[in-house]
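Q: Joint fold for the lines below.
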Amino acid sequence: MIEIIVFSLIGIGIFFSVLRMIIGPEVTDRIVSLDTMNVMITGIIVLLSHIFKNEIYLDIAIVYGVLSFLETVVLSRYLEAKK
Amino acid sequence: MKVIGDVLIIIGGIFYLLGGLGIFRMPDVFNRIQAGTKATTLGAFSLILGVGFLNPSWFLKSLILVVFMTITNPVGSSVLARASYLHGARIAKLQKDDLKGLYEKEEMSQDD
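A: Joint structure:
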């Protein structure tokens, strides 16, 4: 029961973030909303690990966190050099 | 132990919702970075630690994940703020720009 409530809360958060990504006036707004959405998806993977009682999902969450951090840094540096 | 884990998980979900709402509601890019990244960092901290409390044999791995996210999220937010300032983002209700002319000087000193 508690897992369903938490999944709905995170789902509403991801919905608002996707809405900002669609209507965002500049490109930096879209990158900010992508960064927030990546952290939320990491939380969802950790919660799936608790529901399925399987420890391997925590490793997937760690790898996803590393890749999302690299993605944010690379996009920001590209945008900074492009002017 | 189970009660602590459930309460932490619900706090994490509420902070995720607040982060998404802040991303949607705030007026310009820098306010969005503040609202989204800070609320989401606390949400991830609480939720992952809550899952670690619910399953005590995974506590070490979830602690590693918490430490990793606590280090990388502010770094990503700072890099994002610098990039959006240099890209020339619009700032709402700006009266005085303290950083004006600072980065051009840096680039000229790099050219020498």
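Q: Anything notable?
A: The longest helix of chain B spans residues 59-86. Chain B has a mean pLDDT of 85.
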